[in-house]
Amino acid sequence: xxxxxxxxxxxxxxxxxxxxIRRLAYFLNNHPDPAPGRLNIYRSDEQDPxxxxxxxxxxxxxxxxxxxxxxxxxGAVLWDHRDWLPMLTESIDRVVWDPHPAVRVAAVDICLPxxxxxxxxxxKWFVTAAQEDLRVxxxxxxxAVFNAAIETNFEELAPIILRMCESERDVVAQAGSExxxxxxxxxxx
Length: 189
Description:
mainly alpha, 11 helices, globular
């Protein structure tokens, strides 16, 4: 599963068959990896590795689990094949609700090309992916979403940034504060 997803990601510009894209969509929504409440990569000294994971650690896990790797592959494919969005939309609608935060972090990579294809839908996906766990909104790809969409979708994105600033997780509060500063400096918001 993960090998296939990585291959699709690395060769996203290929003209993949409809069967291959259906397989990718199947992995995106149905593969059992990552297991609920577990990380594939973590420090052995953690009592609750998933709960203690930083946004960067969730990104590392996203690349090393099947559903996360599938989400990264879908994001890569959409940069090269914008016309494939209709066949992937239903699967993307489901992955942004994935119970695992590492998979939702990877789903943010789908939102980036989505902003170029159907901006409002991509922002909706991002908001959905980030709403339950603000570590998703503090990931590196999320910064790119904020940069690209804040001016056109301020009403949807600003509440997430404000919630980030109020987070008890220092790394999330720091990322939220950086977003506030960036929006003020670059956009006068």
